[in-house]
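Researcher: I've been going back and forth with a colleague about how VWA7 Ig-like domain-containing protein might be arranged in three dimensions. Neither of us has a model we trust, so I'd like an independent prediction. The organism is Desmophyllum pertusum, in case that matters for your notes. Sequence below.
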Amino acid sequence: MQKRVISTSNKLRIIEVTSLVSGSLELTVSCRGPYTLQVTGSSPIDFTYQLLDVEDMERGTTRRVVGNPLREIDAVSNLTLVGVDGTDLETFNITQGEGFYQNSYYVAFIPSSDTFRLKVTGLDKSGALFQRVKPTLFTLGDVKLSQNVDNSSSSNAIVPGESLELEINVKNTGDPQTLYFTASDDLKYFNSTNPSQGILGKNDTLILRVSLLAPGHAAYGVTSTVTVVVSQNSDFTQLVNFMVLFVTVASKDPDLSPPSCTVTNQTGSCAGVYGKPECVSSTWFAHAMFIDVGEGLLSITSRENRNGTLRVAAFNRGAVNTPITTSFTSNCCHPKVIFAGLDLVGNMGTCSVSLVPDILSFSAQSNTTDVSLHPGDTTKVPFTLTNLGSKGSFSFHVTKTSSLISYVVPFSLALDTNASAAGQVVIASRGETSELERLSVKAVSQSDTVNIKEVTLFVIQVSVLSKGQPTTPALKHVRLEAVVPSNDFSIKPGANVEVNFTVTNLASTETFSFHVSC
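Model: Here is an independent structure prediction for VWA7 Ig-like domain-containing protein. You can compare it with whatever you and your colleague have in mind.
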């Protein structure tokens, strides 16, 4: 543990403590007279969550829960339930997602307590225990709120000077009761609710209409947070449930065209110096021009180069049909830039400059390269890949054949240099036996300035066999992480040595055996 005095005075002393080890930490304060003590900690470990209403347990279809969950029918991701006083109520086992979703965890449960918080418990990479609690307090109820997505206003866009009506389905799953309704929003667009109250029997449903009115001067692109509240009394002190919606101000005739961007000039060369020490002394310049023909230009910024200098000619907010010039200068250690122009309604236009081409290069490994299946069956081939080239966005394609349906999950993703990801090749037979098919799995760059447009990651050989023939067994996604104190040990003749290690299963539940070889 190390400590450093950040600030000191007659009334205040701030000390930073770093290099902490796992376990409890005791603080001792010596002071003459009264004092206050504030301890603030920071950690890179956190979690996010979503409550999911399971609508079909057979198919596993879910819908995100808005407001508080109902009794007995909800699912939630991750955890332990924590009471109001901070005590643990009950703990549920979690299941890790597979493939593209391997960093997500899932658990279905029915809480026995009506009021709870969510807590995650786990081990960090060093094997130390960590716990994280979310402050949100959930209260189970009998009233479910959901927006009517079949309504024409389900886009939640409101036009300046006009009204918008939101339809909310209110369902009572408990005993008959009288419910009261109101709403509010942070921009004060709320006008009325209809009805303002209603009597609902068990499993009864009514449609609540929430009316909003935007002023004529409302700015395009501004979003207001609308909160719909249901209570058991008219003064709204006995809250039953709530729902949060977002309404965005938009034009009646929406501007869907982004500002146009054109690179007008660039000077300098980074050939032969990029990636070398002398890159810092080589400078390049680029000039671009933006024009917006819609609602008007809002801002011009640069991306993917924080080390250069952007200069933008002065212009009035909302400039229409007016050329706006901009320039950027940097050294050859950072040979790229993206000019980005944003209009008043959120459309973005970009153009890019690169003094060196992007590099497309991957290391990929599939769980198998030979697959057999029966007519009409589907199989999945898990794989991992590492981006050995430039940061970028990539899509994935599989060879098309007449006898197979095949695609990659995820269809596309963005990867930093040296970043890794996992995916699956889904292969389905169209229903007939076939000769050996060769499927090439390729990564395609979304960049226009790249050394090559696409690369082959790996090839899978697929056979569709008759029903009587054995096929490739279902493949599982296996991912283990091992922590060993040291990789080098010494042992004297005739002596024994014991090595302790920790293995963490980062995929689905499975039985493993361990073997030692010398």
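Researcher: What would you highlight for our discussion?
Model: I'd start with this: Confidence is low (pLDDT under 50) at residues 56-60, 72-78. After that, consider the following. Residues 263 and 288 are 4 Å apart (CA to CA).
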